[in-house]
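Appendix B: complex inputs.
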Amino acid sequence: MKESAMNTSDIRVLVVDDEEHIRLTLMAFLEDEGFDVTEAASAEAGLEILALESFSVGIIDMRLPGMDGNDFIQNAHEFQPEMKFLIHTGSSEYVLPQDLKKIGLKTEHVIKKPVVDMAVFTDYIQRLLGNL
Amino acid sequence: MRNSVEKNGKVKDPSYRTILEVFPEPVILYDREGRTTFINSAFTDIFGRTLDELRNRQNDDGRDSADPVTQRVLAKLKRGERISNLKTHWFTRDKKRIDFSMSAAPWRDQDGNPAGYLAHFRDITEQTSSGNVFPENDVQYKLHWLIVEFLPVSIVVYDMEGRAIFLNPAFEKTFGWNHEEILHKKIDFVPPDEMEATGKRVGRMMKGDHIKYFATKRLTKDGRILDIVLNTASFYNDRGEQIGNVVILRDVTELRKSRMALEKSEESYRTLFNGVPVGLYRAKTNGVVEDVNHGLVAMLGYPDRQSLIAKNSTEHYVNPSDRKRWLALLEKNGVVYNFDTRLYRYDGTIIWTRNNGRVIKDKKGKMLHIEGAMLDITKRKRDKEALKKTRRYLKNIIDSMPSVLVGIDKEGFVNQWNLEAEKRTGLQAKQAEGLPLGKAYPRLLDQMEQIQQVMKDKRPRKVEKVLSEIDGETQYSEIVIYPLLVSGVEGAVLRIDDVTARVRLEDMMVQTEKMMTVGGLAAGMAHEINNPLSGILQGAQNLARRFSPDLAKNVATAEACGIDLELVNVYMGKRQIFKFLEGIRESSLRASKIVANMLQFSRRSESNIEYIDPVALVNKTVELALNDYDLKKQYDFKQIKIVRDFDTEQAKVPCVSTEIQQVIFNLIKNATQAIHKAERTGSPTLFLRLRKGRREVRFEVEDNGPGIDEKTQRRVFDPFFTTKKVGVGTGLGLYVSYFIITEKHKGKMMVESNPGKGANFIFHLPL
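Resulting structure:
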């Protein structure tokens, strides 16, 4: 018996990507879907936000200026162990490393760019949070 | 008185006895038996003997002091011979020696019967002791005298004091002293070193010994030394005393000189005969060996001459028919030169000999002996063989080289032409040698200047990638020109290698490198492209969404702005806005697909075998082909109709998808190029077929282009084989495809074609 689904408006999503247009459009879509979305242009910025606020899901790009996505997730997990993650990457060679698997990520949580229909994010977010 | 006795031999009456009685010289009478019958008083006076005394001793033999007439003389008388002037001697009763000359004759009685003998003696003692040895009035002496005078041998007579009492003319001539100078003197002509030997012999001589053949030396008056051989004889007086010696000296100087010269020359011939390192021999034609020299003994390894001579010549020959030939040649020509044959040595080993010989014939022309000289040429033959072998070996090496090797002299005429050169030009070595290079190898005419330069500079040069067309095929050659650097030898050697394969390989590698770079770039680029693509796609999606009346937010916002969202949508529909948005989406999608495909295709060494749906694979590849720059630009790929015929029953084939994609892509590209090359039947069509077999899946890529002739069909999978123009393609596509299918996937690949009816490339992949 599943828990009662969270209200989508309660679901806080953090989008970390250095591409402005991607952040913009993804955020617009997720907002339309009713999620509460915050953006960060770099891992460092993201961590600063996480220090102050808690999030349910993070959609993280791997190639970031400064600290990369991998390390960000590791660090984020230490701040907020309950937080779930989706990886949104343009690198077709990307393979999920062991340490991320330990945290709880699975291969299906790696979403390759470009995404044709962003509904896939909605889908996975709900799954991650056990709502589906 | 004597005459009357001589006439008839008779003593006529007793008065004769009286006459005899008073006769002043001694007379003896004998009877027929030799008994003394009468002696006269002169006899008694001189010899002091009586008749009685003589009678008593008549049986004595030989020379008896009792009777002056010896038995020997009596025997003569008995035979009827007469004695005249016999020089002899006797001793008186007082032991005094009397030299006398005796004459005796037989006498007959009145009736004519032999009655006895008469002997008459004349005392010549005085005469002998006066030294007048050779009375001039005596015939016998005269004869002896003549002999001595004219004898060409030197004679000197010495007395017992060593003084010369007689010299013959030969002596005078030989030694230079004359009679008057030397007579009664000692001759001082013994050289100091001969003194001792001569002294010994003089001693013996004086004792009455005869010296025979004493070889010594004597000096001439003018001091020359002569080689002498001398003989001596002693002579005695009536009393038997040695009174002198006759010495005969033979001058053998010249004889000795010539003998020594002869010996020397013989010696030197012997040395020559024996010493030369050539084998010399004389043998009879039947094989019996007469003489051999040391050289031959050594050559044949025999322990000595005897053991070699003991063998018949025929035994030495390894090949008996060789000897027959040898003899036949000698018979025919008399002299034979350089006849080579093998002979056995003493130890059984075999040597090669070179023989010169001549035959000696008798008056009738029959062969008597063979005189021959032979040389051991084993080493020479071996060296020649070794040389031949080395030459053959070198030629082998030169001919085995897969490069063309051509040698030229400094004038540019060919002097070396190996097997590969023969193959490439069709010209045999014998024909090529002596020709000017340009004529023998016309393709090298362009290089003549370089060649000249090399010979001048004495530095090698390489000419790379020389292009030529042979039988419609492009070929690349590399020409290296080497100057001949060995002193005294001028010219050059050219090495021509077919480097077509290497050049193609290099090109391929460059291309691969490019591709790999491109691959690398592609990977990086893909990355970069995906981001803006995301931007486009996501943006487009949002655009469409945010016009939708389904989203509450949209409706609310429109209302707040005083816009009827429905109406906006109507407007947008009428103005094809959605279509454009859709277009953006589709295009971006395609772009992302291209990137994805390209990334996948240019991924390196991903040899993971996966179970792949062949239908999907083929379709993916077609898409790729549709996007191929070359195909699009040059071959108007869009015009080609693609007919798919897939029946795989959902089978999945284990394979490396990228590699199979590579193969299919290559086949499609080739088909497209073929279609555009020449006439075809019907509109350009590409047939793609998939069939599941029992144990394999069959892929077919068929075109309706001009097709491939049988000759080309056989070569189509060869590496670097291409029918495309220079610079187009590497000729590796089909080779690599073949490799991928057959080697890596253990499948099969083949082509079916008929000229004018297109070509069908088929491959199977095992399930």
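Residues 500-545 of chain B form the longest helix (46 residues).
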